[in-house]
Amino acid sequence: MVAHKSVDSSRQSATFMYLYALAVSGGAVAYMPFLTILLPLRATDISGNDALGMLAIAAFLGAIAASVANIGFGWASDKTGQRRPWICAGLALSTALLLATAYANSPVALITIIILWQIGLNMMLAPLSAWAGDNIPDSQKGFLGGLLALAPAMGALSGAFVTMNDAVPSEHREIIIAMLVIAMVSPVLIFGRPISMPGLNTAPTDQSTDEVQTAETRHATAKMWIARLLVQIAEASLFAFLLLWFRSVDPDFGENNAANIFALVLGTAVFLALAVGRWSDRANRPILPLICGAAAASAGLIIMSVSSSLPIGIAGYVVFGLASSVFLALHSSQTLRVLPRPQTRGRDLGIFNLTNTVPSLIMPWLTLALVPTYGFRSLFLLLAVLALIACLLLASMPRQHANG
């Protein structure tokens, strides 16, 4: 799981951390522009007016495949004691299947390729996530979280790039994405030489101590899981329906305006997450930024629910977007400190990954149940309550986890 080189140090090298963050950003580039832009266009070419139904089936089955594969390949990398070979294999398989989507000529063929692509993609992503837990100590996990905020920003930027018709012909978009992903993930596989951190990968030798630590950690892990799920539901709902809400306030609000706001929030969140993550490392307060982030996200949703004008609504979304982006980035890194056992780190992170896939199954039903009858205001208030519950759960974390 770690390099053979061993150095008596409590800090991981900055080079490895930067290369690792680049690889995680490559993972986001692998799926964000494809799922949000290229797949809908491909589905429209194949199915025409039936594209929406085909996309719904692909999203549902793809989410199930991704969830199972992430847990399975995380477990497999635990058992083999190696992360790098699984990441390499997943990179190769997912790249090949991404390119194969251009040759699908029926809904069944495209959906089948999407399911297989999700499996290949998670063969790469699951061990990649666990690799950070193997090599990055608790004292640098805040900084790691800040670096991870780059991933969604890079994913969004790559989507904007591949849809520039003058720069990238439509028939070459999948090829460009594949090249970007390879260029971003390969450096850490080739040049990444992490300093060995034996303490991160050794379970307690005293069985009674292990049982006590596991019992204490189990409650903290459950709270972290539920808190992320609640914030992810809110974030997924806003991502999917924000443009429709903006247009309900101002019918002249364009998609380019929404894209600019998304870009502003994601770009600013990178710098904010880096600053907050560094502070949490220095102050040894890993959970406090998550508590504040969930509280601020709830406040932003409340502002959106009571706003009667577009500027106030945009301000509320900016508050929510920044808070939720920083929360999710820092949560991803701080989760590594509460996992019960290093020997099942990959599998356990796969279970945490369900908080990324389950919201896509919950969010449409929440929206359909509330918005047609009660309007967007009711949806925002419900999401604000969910974020507030996440805040309270994290505030009740055991002291040994909340204070590092």
Defining key terms:
Growth Hormone, Chain: A, 404 residues, 2 domains, 0% strand, globular, mainly alpha, single chain, disordered N terminus
Number of strands: 0
- Give the terminus-to-terminus CA distance: 24 Å
Determine the CATH topology of the largest domain: Growth Hormone, Chain: A
The CATH homologous superfamily of the largest domain is called MFS general substrate transporter like domains
**Tally of domains:** 2
Note the beta-strand portion.
under 5%
Helical percentage:
over 70%
- So, CATH architecture of the largest domain? Up-down Bundle
Number of helix segments? 14
Radius of gyration: 21 Å
Overall, the morphology is globular
- Overall structural class, as computed from helix and strand content, comes to mainly alpha
Helix-strand string: HHHHHHHHHHHHHH
The biggest beta sheet, please? none
Q: What can you tell me about this protein's structure?
A:
With 404 residues, the protein is mainly alpha-helical. It has two domains: 183 residues, Growth Hormone, Chain: A, CATH 1.20.1250; 196 residues, Up-down Bundle (Growth Hormone, Chain: A). Helix content is 79%, strand content 0%. It is built from 14 helices and no strands. The protein starts with 13 loop residues before the first helix and ends with a helix. 47% of the residues are buried.
Topology (SSEs and partners):
Elements lengths: L13 H34 L3 H30 L3 H17 L6 H29 L5 H8 L1 H13 L10 H19 L15 H43 L5 H29 L4 H19 L3 H25 L10 H30 L1 H20 L3 H4 L2
Helix pairs in contact: 1-2, 1-4, 1-6, 1-7, 2-4, 2-12, 3-4, 3-7, 4-12, 5-9, 5-11, 6-9, 8-11, 8-12, 8-13, 9-11, 10-11, 10-13, 12-13
